[in-house]
Structures are given as C-alpha cells and as structure tokens.
Amino acid sequence: MKTAHLIAMACLAVLAAGCNRTGAVECSSVDGQAVITSLMSDQILQATRDQLGASAPQPPVNESQVRAALSKIKMTIEDIRTTKKDQGSTRRTCAATVKLVLPLNMIADAERFHTANQLEPISTLTGAAGLRRSADSFTHELAYSVQPTDDKKKVYGEIEGFGPVASALGTLIAAHLVLPALEASQQSEAATAQAQQALLDQQTLAQNQADLELATAENKLAVQAYSEVWKSLPDETRAQNIGIQRAWAKKKTANCNIRAAETSIDPLVREAARLRCETEQTQARTGEMKGLIE
C-alpha cells in the first residue's frame, strides 16, 4: 500500500542541496527525507489513535499526549539508494533503512502492559511487522519515491509497505500511554480490596472474641455444676471414684486439645473449640455422677 504526501520546498538554484538541473528532488535530499519522515509520522499517529479508540482507556488519552509521545521517537533515514530514475521525469524511486529510536521507558511500559493483559509480546509484534530491534532502536527497510510538483514549490512523496510498521508502533505507543491509567486503576482496586479485607479481619476478630467469651461462660457453668454434684456425693463414693475422676480429667484434657488443634489455626477459634469440648465432656461426666447418688 502506497501513501502520498506533499511538503513545501525551496529549490531556487542548481546548487541548492538535493536539487539537480532538471529540478528533480533526489532520494537523499533534505526535502525528500522531510516529506517521507512526515508520512511515516502521520501513519504512526493515526495507528496510535486507532489503537486508543479501540481500547477506550479510562481516563481517556488526549491528542496532545499522543503527539507528545510521538515527538519522543527519533526517525532517521539511512543508507539511501536510488533504485530508479524515470527517463524524462523528476520522479525518483528510492530505498533506504529507516531507524526509529524510542525511549526505553516507552518500550518497557508497552511490554508491561502487554504482559499484564496477556497480549502478544511486543517483540513478537514488532518482529512480525519487519522491525529489527537493537537496544532502544528499531530499523526497517523502506521503499519510497519523491518528486517535485510542476511548479517546483512542493515535494510529493509516497511510501510503500509501511502500514504494518506503523500499526506495530501505534500499538506500542498506545500501550505506553494507557499503562499509567491501568496501573492507577489496579492500585485503586488493590487498596479497596485491602481495606475490605482489613474490615473483614476486624469483624472476624470481634466475632471470634465474642464466641470465646460465650464458650468460657458455658464452660464455667458446666464446671460449677460438676463441682456441686461431686461435693454432694457421699464421702465413701468420692473415695471410691477419686482415681477414676483423675483419669477422666487427664483423658478429657488430651482429647479436647487434639480436637481443638484440628479446628483452626486461629488461637481464638481453637481455644473456643477446646472449651466447648471440655464443657461437653464435663456435662456428660456430671450426668454419670448424678447416677452415683441414686
């Protein structure tokens, strides 16, 4: 796909840079490079807009932010070759290597955004577009043509096959611009979740403390009832059962410690479970001792 563009030029004399006696604009001319660079910038700008329009970031990224990001990319056209001179024409067909130097933080932001959203890696995206990376720069083989208008006041330029490159770079720039909003949203969500968890922990603690207080009160009543029944037994009966009572108490303690350990790692919950176990077994033993009175 070819993209054309015009740029004003000044070619007032044969000695002016990049102009020859026919008025042609050569591939390496300043004006020719300017129009081609402008074309590439326009395509990358539009690709970035398209990506942002598709993702609809919140808060939205404005045009000035897009242009500011694009201005940080340095584009140079190197190793320029003239591949064709049309006979009797001022049109020049050219080939060159375009070098695009991006801020490292822009690339890193894009990589983080794509990783966080489980998107195609930036290296895969740029590689598929024909971009070769070296540190903070990308290079691409470019085919283009330049030609002055008939009145020699402007330069007409066309570039071929730059669409995939512009799309990849537009995706990279858009990810860089959207990342701050994404991370701010994630931080807000994390803070909200943390606050909710803190509230839940506080409520759980209060609930566990109240439950332990209840279990303690229930156990106290069970122990009191047990003591009263034990005291009411005849002296001879108490003497006969003293060994059994001591063995029962040890077994009760061991059983309830094991049961409590299996319930929870929370010390409050574990202690409440231990007390309820002892209450249950104390009540059962109290009932058995009442049978000794009869």
Structure description:
The chain is 62% helix and 17% strand. It is α+β, with helices and mostly antiparallel strands. The protein has 2 domains: 191 residues, no CATH class; 98 residues, Up-down Bundle (Substrate Binding Domain Of Dnak, Chain:A, Domain 2), CATH 1.20.1270. Strands 1, 2, 3, 4, 5 and 6 form a 6-stranded antiparallel sheet that branches. 28% of the residues are buried. About 5% of the residues have low confidence.
Write the layout of secondary structure elements.
Layout lengths: L1 E7 L21 H26 L7 H9 L2 E12 L6 E10 L2 H13 L5 H7 L3 E3 L2 E12 L5 E7 L2 H70 L2 H29 L3 H27 L1
Antiparallel strand pairs: 1-6, 2-3, 3-5, 4-5, 5-6
Question: In short, what is this structure?
Answer:
Helices cover 62% and strands 17% of the residues. With 294 residues, it is of the alpha+beta class.
Beta content: 15-25%
How many distinct beta strands? 6
Give the helices and strands as they follow along the chain.
EHHEEHHEEEHHH
Q: Helix/strand/pairing class, anyone?
A: alpha+beta
Tell me the domain tally.
2
Name a few traits of the molecule.
single chain; 294 residues; alpha+beta; Substrate Binding Domain Of Dnak, Chain:A, Domain 2; 2 domains; 6-stranded antiparallel β-sheet; 6 strands
